[in-house]
Specification:
single chain, 579 residues, seven-stranded antiparallel β-sheet, 11 helices, flat, Alpha-glycosidase_related, GH, Aldolase_TIM, Alpha-galactosidase
């Protein structure tokens, strides 16, 4: 970075027109310019909350991305909304203001992965500047760092470099190959109506379709007889549903599927046999869940959770666990108590111990699924399957949420939310659900034994295509355009192979035809064509298939630079290769 663009004046630093101001008396700022970024050290001189503001001229700013953005893509006013509490198990301290070309104006991240931070942001109507405020509880002499990327880079590129700098990436839990294969989940297909026989019937078909992982969701445990969680806490199998749980797990594994079971280890229900012994350790009740939340700042709670999880894996031969509802611990973020004062740091201690125990039990990395919003970069030390939060039947949400996780998790294994669709709908509508998960690992959650032959063939086709392009889709470089446009066109490439998926109607796809020898162009819309904008001329072979993979034409065409309209069936595929 050009050092002449960096200046400091007391409690204010400025780099590339981005101002960093310490608003707390005595707090110190120090800057270290790097090749593509500036790293700012923030040193608290007194114990308490250190307040820092980052701000930049609004310019052509059109949207602000942050890890928990969800549908909140427009620019907020700085007087809107409350402070957001961010910590290890709830999002991450990072964000990117970008312009109409999808290039960053202010991209930043913090290394406070394990401690709680309050954050707010928005446009000032008085100054036409965009500001971000960070409130950080710090001890005297404690410090943290902010990395600020140089502006003008594509959003995905800026966030990728921030993520590689943030804590967690260097010590990430490695993903066994089973976590990088299509999965079958019981949640949407069965909910709590699970049993050994029903799960095994689904597992057999899932294995035929190319799945390598089964996730048994909520409902396997005793006292799971309602949609709420008043029976949680003991974590023993329901003897009526699973009379020999270990034998059942083994049978599924013999089909070629790894086996992961759901657990919500911080939830404690009054109907659980464990309630009497743990009631005093779970002072907060969540009425919507009909249960209490164990306080992880307590030593006894951490010991109990680790022991229960380890026993579950060891006793029944599981390959891993789906850890759910970890974010509920944030109810203790603003209160005092015994043990570790900061709930994020307490959760790190808990998860560190759990990771160590499970590794020792298995002699290898366990499969650990984490879900938004606690699938941030710092949590990569503790989980290797980072899943989008629930969005049943919403293909757009599934696409957006998986891409949001991936933006701060380069090299990680991101899983989509469980895929479900109307089994009576047209096959194109069903295919678009699978296409929404192409840039993540698909998790299918349909009653496969009841699925029509056409829907089953469609599922097998797209899972097979995903496996064929896995190294491109989840290991390659990726650009998804402007986040406020819901990532309407996504491109991934690895070497000379690329996959481009058009999710928005009437989009023009830019393409360098001589750069790639294999391009999979997917039409995830209801239109019957796609429009390419070629940078140069090329003679190409076009191989077109419909939503089920059935041939729809093969052509050799001389394509000149400029716009070209290609016939591609709705939810269909066109492969381009040199002719």
């Amino acid at each position: 970075m050009d050092n002449s663009r960096l200046w400091a004046d007391g409690n204010v630093l400025c780099t590339h027109n981005i101002a960093v101001t310490a608003l707390t008396d005595g707090a110190q700022l120090q800057a270290a310019p790097q090749a593509e970024a500036t790293v700012v050290r923030i040193i608290g001189t007194e114990s308490g909350t250190t307040l820092v503001r980052l701000d930049v001229p609004l310019g052509d700013g059109v949207g602000y991305w942050h890890p928990a953005a969800g549908w909140e893509r427009p620019l907020p006013a700085d007087w809107e909304g409350d402070w957001r509490r961010v910590g290890l198990i709830n999002s991450a301290v990072a964000g990117c203001l970008y312009d109409g070309a999808g290039r960053s104006l202010l991209a930043f991240a913090s290394d406070r992965g394990d401690a709680t931070t309050l954050i707010r942001f928005g446009v000032s109507e008085d100054t036409a500047r965009f500001g971000v405020w960070l409130a950080m509880p710090m001890r005297a002499g404690e410090e943290c760092r902010l990395r600020i990327e140089g502006p003008g880079r594509p959003v995905d590129d800026a966030l990728r470099d921030l993520a590689r700098w943030m804590p967690g990436t260097g010590d990430a839990l490695r993903t066994p190959d089973a976590g990088r294969t299509p999965a079958y989940s019981t949640w949407y297909s069965m909910h709590r109506d699970v049993s050994a026989a029903a799960v095994e019937a689904e597992a057999a078909i899932a294995a035929e379709l190319g799945c390598g992982l089964l996730l048994l969701d909520d409902g396997w445990q005793a006292h799971a007889d309602s949609r709420k969680y008043s029976g949680c806490g003991d974590w023993t199998p329901d003897p009526a549903k699973f009379p020999d749980f270990a034998a059942h797990v083994s049978r599924v594994q013999q089909m070629g599927l790894s086996y992961v079971a759901w657990i919500a280890p911080l939830l404690l229900g009054e109907r659980s046999p464990a309630h009497g012994a743990l009631d005093g350790l779970a002072p907060h009740r969540v009425p919507r869940l009909a249960c209490q939340v164990l306080d992880p700042r307590q030593d006894k709670v951490r010991a109990f959770v680790v022991q229960r999880c380890a026993e579950l894996v060891e006793r029944y031969g599981l390959d891993g666990l789906k850890l759910d509802f970890l974010e509920t611990a944030m109810v203790y973020a603003a209160s005092g108590g015994d043990g570790a004062a900061d709930v994020s740091q307490a959760m790190r201690a808990l998860l560190d111990e759990l990771r160590t125990r499970l590794r020792a039990l298995r002699g290898e990395e366990p499969l650990i699924e984490l879900r938004q919003p606690y699938a941030g970069p710092a949590m990569r030390r503790f989980g290797n399957l980072l899943r989008a939060s629930d969005c049943p039947g919403d293909a757009t949400a599934n696409r957006v949420r998986t891409l949001d996780i991936a933006r701060l998790a380069p090299g990680a294994t991101v899983h989509c939310d469980m895929l479900m669709w109307d089994p009576c709908a047209g096959v194109e509508a069903a295919a678009r659900q699978l296409q929404s998960a192409l840039y993540a690992v698909p998790q299918v959650s349909m009653r496969l034994v009841e699925l029509s032959a056409e829907h089953r063939a469609m599922t097998a086709w797209w899972l097979g295509l995903w496996r064929q392009y896995r190294d491109v889709l989840i290991d390659g470089e990726r650009h998804a355009g402007r986040p406020d446009e819901r990532d309407a066109t996504v491109t991934a490439w690895n070497g000379d192979r690329a996959v481009i998926t058009v999710f928005g109607e009437h989009r023009v796809v830019p393409l360098e035809p001589r750069r790639f020898t294999d391009v999979a162009l997917i039409n995830s819309t209801t239109a019957e064509h796609l429009v390419l904008d070629l940078t140069d001329s090329a003679r190409v072979r076009l191989t077109v298939t419909d939503a089920c993979g059935r041939p729809a034409g093969t052509h050799v065409r001389e394509l000149r630079s400029g716009l070209h309209r290609l016939p591609v069936p709705p939810a269909g595929l066109c492969r381009l290769s040199p002719a």
